[in-house]
Fold this protein.
Amino acid sequence: MPKFLLLKHYRGAPDLPEPVPPMDQWTPEDIDRHLQFLEDCTQMLKESGEFVDGTGLHPDRVWVQYGGTPGAAPVTTDGPYPETSDLIAGWYLVDVESRERALEIAAHVSSGPGPDGKPMYEWIEVREVMFGAFQDAD
């Protein structure tokens, strides 16, 4: 069965039909409602046997690069970040029967509540996992 990565972005996706403020501007109740929805999605995918992995990511990040010589400390920087690297908020990794099912799940995740409990209609990036040197095909 193919595996797909469903990516939630903080920004960098196409514009939403209705603008949604950044999560750090939401009320605690709106954040709780959204996080509960995501937990419910996880439970739904576990029950269907399609869940492989998933999590939310902290907004802090750092770039890391090989230090150039064996034993050298890695080179790190906290920016500037290229515009194309907009922060990924989290993901689901699903193992499904088809691409169509992955799109169906992504559409459901897109319906998660935002401020005032209204569906966000957020864009979810869907990427099929490549099989090869890094992963055994089932």
Remarks:
- The helical segments are 28-48, 99-110.
- The first strand starts at residue 3 and ends at 9.
